[in-house]
Each structure stands twice: as C-alpha cells, then as structure tokens.
Design a protein that fits this description.
The complex is a heterodimer of chains A (about 140) and B (about 475). Chain A has about 140 residues and is of the alpha/beta class. Chain A contains four helices and five strands. Chain A has one domain: HybD-like (Rossmann fold). Chain A has a five-stranded mixed beta sheet. Chain A is globular and about 40 Å long. In chain B, strand 12 and strand 13 form a beta hairpin. The chains are: A alpha/beta (about 140), B alpha+beta (about 475). The interface between A and B is medium-sized, with 14 and 23 residues.
Chain lengths: ~140, ~475
C-alpha cells in the first residue's frame, strides 16, 4: 500500500506553516511526504501514483482537529490560487484514470500573521495530528 | 444616454483588475480602460534593508515569476559590488531564467489561454478552463501540465524550491546543479520539446479562425523593446536593449544601466500600474511593448535551429515585424522551444560544474541597475545604497507596466469591434475583452508589487459616469 502525506501552507504566515511541520515530523516515522505552498495541477501525476493520500492544512476556524474523507471532484474549474484536495483527486482521475483514496486533516491555529514559527496552540495541534496519524487505520 | 460597462474581476490573469467601457451619448463605445486596483509598496518598505537581502525580498513580489526578480535584483547587487560574477554562476543563472521562461509561458498558454483558443471564445464559461480542455483533449492538457512541471523541476533543482528560491545573490549563486538533477532534466527534454511544438502546431491550425481577434487584439504599429546580444540575436539575461519602431523598421541601441536617461514613467489617477515610456518621444507616443512578441521583433535571429525555423515561418506569414498582440501567444510558444534548446546546450556544457560560484566584495558603488528579461518582458531593478549597503532608494520597472498603454489601447479596440450592442452584452464579448488582456499575460502582482487574486469586473458607465451595467466573475 503506497501512501503519501501532503502538507500545504505558507510558513511565513505563522500557524499556516503547521502542515509543513507535521509533514516533516511524519517523514521521520516513515511517511512519504511533500510540503507545498498550495495545491497545483502539476501534483496530479505524483499523487496518482499512490493508493492513499492524506492532505494536511491549517485552519483558522475554531474547533477540534479535523479529519475527513475526500471525494474526487471531477470536471470543475481549477482556481489558480486556491487548489483544493477534492479537485486534485478529480484531476488525477481525469488525467491518469486513477485516483488514490484521500483524507484531509485540518490543524486549528490562532495566529496567521506575518511571522515564522508556530504558536503554542498550533504546536499542540501538530502533536495531536501526529497522534491521529499514528492511531488511524487508512482503508 | 451614454453608459459604462465594467468587467471586474478580469479572470485567468495574474492579479486583480477590472475593465471599464465608457459609452457616448449615442451608446457607442468611446473608450475602454484596464484598471489595476492593487497596491503593495515594495519601493517604499524595502528602503533601509541591506542590498544582500534584496533578491529574497523582491522575489516575494510574485509566486509565478519570482526567478525574474531574483535575477534582476542579484544583477543590481553585482553592479553595487562592482564584480564580474564567475562564468559558471552566469551559466547557472541563465539556466534558471530559461526554466522560468518555459514554466511561465507554459502556464500562460496551456493553462490560461488555450481553452479560449481550442474550445472557442464563445464556448460556455464552465468549460473554458483547464478542466474543460482536459475533457476536450486529455493528452494536450496533460502535456501542458508536464511542460510547466519540467520548468519548475529545474528551478527547484537549482534553487532548492520551486517558489521563492533564495539562490541568486549579489556576486553569483549559492549552489550548482547536481549530476543527477542534470541527467533528470536532460531526460525530460525530448518530451518537453514535443509538447511545445505540438502547442505551436495547434495554435497555427486554429489561427485562421481567429482573424477578427488577430486584427483587433492590439494590432497597431509602434515601438517594441527587448534585450539583444552583441550580434543582435535573442537574449534574456545580458546585453543591450534594442528599441524597434515598426513604422520605420529602425532600431535604437539603449544601455540598460542608464535607463533613467531615456525612460520616464507617468502615473494616471485611475490606475496603480505605472505607464513607462521612451522619453525622447514623450507620453503617450513613446509607450512601447515588451515581452515575447517584442523580443522576437527586435532580434535578428534566435540562435538555435528549431526556434529560428519557427520564427522564420512566422515572419514569412506576417512580415518581419509582427504588430498584432494576439501573436504574443505564438511568440510565447516559439520562446518555449528556444528556451528548451538553450537549456539543452547549457546542460551539456562542462563549464556548468566549474567553481567558484560567487565573487565576494563589499560596497564599491552606491548605485546599481539590474536588467534581464522576465517571461513577460524587460525588468529593471534600480537600487541606491549608502556606504553600508542599506537601500536608500529603489525603483522597479516591470514588464506588465511597460505594456500598460498597449493593453489599454487593446481593450478599447476590442470593445469597439465586438461590443456592438451595449443593451445586450454577450458572454463571448466579455471573454474577448478579458482574452485581449490575457494575450499580454500580465502579472499584476509583479507590476503593482501587489497581493493578487484574480478576479474580473466589467462595468458600463453612462456619460454622467453612472454605472448602468455590471458583470462580475
């Protein structure tokens, strides 16, 4: 079973870099990972070569860590500055005839200002996200 | 009663803009304007920063063409240090600039403009995008995505990441190219070349069905500006500027480092985008076009066999100087071929592995100008520093700004040609207004140094300036 984790966000915007931090730490425990600023059509080729993919993104929405199955969205316009996981999976299907099963993990943050480094709140989200990855059984 | 039409936001471009169309009292198009509604202020807040930081700072102006700013900024830094960078460093910088031209042109043609060209200007908007193109021709869409990926891959191999690589520095570059990355790039070249040539073949096949667009998308005589080498050939990194007047066929050689002697800029109160012009001819007569079409017009030849053959075919068809801005698309595809050929030469060059990669010096001049060709046209970074190397003044002259007057003239031409019934504006008309801007591939994030989304608003205003019609996307 080939699985991939994609962390996306902007490390120059504080807690928006949480997904990159989680990806770096997940790589240490054996995950194949990618860190990108945003999801782009060029990722479809790589993603289509995996069986399972976990997308990780930060969110400013209050609430617990999010974990959700994603359905591929086919035939929808690709917004140049705001690609999202469902459209990427749809593009995999359209371009390469196959799409991995996908999940999105959202990491709550509180400070998305212009700065490097995560807030304590966001760091806790990353730890919780890693724990979720360890426990969850992807099927 | 006269009226105004507004297109806001303009879509499938890099940035945030709107188009307004003014109607006269008879309801006929009087003029159209392309407004850029963004502002960011790099020229102000970079004051006080060390010149060594400038490549990384100004690279953040844009996520599409950060390499262009990185290189022009590093060149301005070279001038302030008063160094000649090591030969391998120049080759590596050239390699990254070519990769940038390939990936940016691929984005412009395959992702943004080919849906209009292959599916039609009047095709339903939900299909007129990359995904619609994919449904129409999967192989073509996939090839375009992979071509852009190739350019990004090379940028990442050189700079460590695709976007905002902190790689070029005053005096040279930070790192070379590994043998493995070199071989990986060489292996991808044949496929990339095939995609680029197929794109050009398709463009030329559909071109006869776009005669109205070719005639009205900014087809006017005027000035073109671009870099050329010592023999007058296509150049993207160094050399002299050539200003060609299509009315006389005469070229004027200009020194990029003394651009302030011949280039001036006007600010209009309805636009954050500046209007640069050739000072001896005054404003607006001295306004000129830059970018792929201008570069192909000002050069004698490109200097690589495939691209030269393709350029010759274009010149046989439209004449020595192409004046229709619709042909920016064709020029872009020829430049992709040229870029791939030059990339191959550089990758085969054993000097690419030479060292050192950086000349080190302290501040030896208090002013430096860096000039190179960004995908969208000529780019100037002009810095003044104090004796400690802190920036005291900077001026950025961006390609999209230099095409500003031409884009405004173009939207007026298109509105007059296609907006024949202002009471009943068809979607295809709005799309042609957008597409005429898209032909220039403007990067508004760069040209206003502003944060960009990409929305489009078209507004129709009456003679009293009141908005009587509006379409937003």
């Amino acid at each position: 079973m080939k699985r991939l984790l994609i962390g996306y966000g902007n490390e120059l915007r504080g807690d928006d870099g949480a997904a990159w931090e989680l990806a770096r730490r997940a790589a240490l425990v054996g995950w194949k990972t990618l860190c990108v600023v945003q999801l782009t059509p060029e990722l479809a080729e790589t993603v289509s070569q995996f069986d399972q993919v976990v997308f990780v993104d930060a969110t400013h929405e209050p609430g617990p860590l999010g974990w959700q199955l994603i359905k591929p969205k086919a035939g929808q316009e690709w917004p140049i500055h705001s690609g999202e996981p469902g459209r990427l999976l749809g593009l995999c299907q359209s371009l390469y005839g196959k799409s991995p099963k996908g999940w999105i993990m959202t990491l709550p943050g509180e400070d998305f200002g212009y700065r490097l480094g995560l807030s304590e709140f966001s760091q806790a989200s990353v730890v919780e996200g890693l724990e979720r990855l360890r426990k969850v059984r992807l099927r | 009663m006269s009226r105004l039409i507004v297109i806001d936001p303009v879509t499938r471009i890099e940035g945030h803009a709107k188009i307004t169309v003014d109607l006269d009292e008879q309801g006929q198009v009087q003029r159209a304007r392309f407004h850029v509604a963004e502002f960011r202020g790099f020229e102000k807040f970079c004051q006080g920063r060390p010149v060594w930081e400038m490549p990384s700072l100004t690279g953040r102006i844009c996520g599409i063409c950060p390499v262009s700013h990185l290189l022009a900024s590093a060149k301005a830094g070279d001038a302030i240090l008063a160094v000649q960078i090591p030969p391998a460093a120049e080759k590596l910088r050239r390699l990254m600039n070519l990769a940038q031209i390939v990936q940016s042109h691929a984005l412009s043609f395959f992702h943004l403009s080919s849906p209009d060209l292959l599916l039609g200007m009047d095709s339903p908007p939900p299909q007129r995008n990359l995904v619609g193109l994919l449904a129409h021709d999967k192989e073509f869409a996939r090839g375009g995505i992979r071509l852009r990926q190739f350019g990004q891959m090379l940028i990442e191999a050189l700079g460590g990441k695709k976007i905002h690589p902190a790689w070029a520095v005053a005096g040279g570059v930070r790192a070379g190219l590994s043998q493995a990355d070199r071989e990986a790039a060489l292996a991808r070249l044949p496929e990339s070349m095939a995609v680029a040539e197929e794109g050009l073949k398709r463009f030329r096949e559909v071109l006869p069905s776009f005669q109205s667009e070719c005639d009205s998308f900014g087809d006017f005589p005027g000035l073109f500006l671009g870099l050329v080498d010592a023999q007058g050939n296509w150049e993207h990194y160094n050399g002299q500027l050539s200003l060609l007047d299509s009315r006389t066929g005469q070229s004027t050689a200009l020194d990029p480092s003394s651009y302030r002697d011949w280039l001036d800029e006007v600010i209009e109160d309805w636009n954050y985008l500046k209007f640069p012009y050739y000072q001896p001819l005054g404003y607006p007569e001295g306004c000129y076009r830059v970018g792929p079409l201008a570069r192909l017009n000002v050069c004698q030849r490109i200097g690589t066999p495939r691209a030269d053959a393709l350029l010759e075919e274009m010149r046989q068809r439209v004449g020595r100087i192409a004046t229709s801005s619709f042909l920016y698309h064709e020029a872009r595809l020829i430049e992709i071929v040229a870029g791939l050929e030059q990339i191959e030469r550089l990758l085969d060059d054993p000097q690419l592995d030479a060292t050192p990669l950086r000349a080190r010096a302290s501040i030896n001049r208090l002013r430096g100008v860096g000039c190179s060709e960004a995908p969208r046209g000529t780019l100037f970074h002009d810095y003044e520093v104090d004796e400690n190397g802190l920036i005291t003044r900077l001026n950025l002259v961006i390609a999209t700004g230099q095409n500003n007057a031409a884009m405004n003239r173009t939207v007026t031409e298109v509105a007059k040609r296609f907006l024949t019934d202002p009471e009943n504006i068809q979607e295809g008309v709005l799309n042609r207004l957008e597409a005429s801007i898209r032909a220039f591939d403007p990067c508004l994030s760069c040209s206003t140094h502003a944060y960009g989304k990409m929305p489009l608003l078209v507004q129709v205003r009456d003679a009293l300036g009141q908005v009587v019609g509006q379409v937003a996307r």
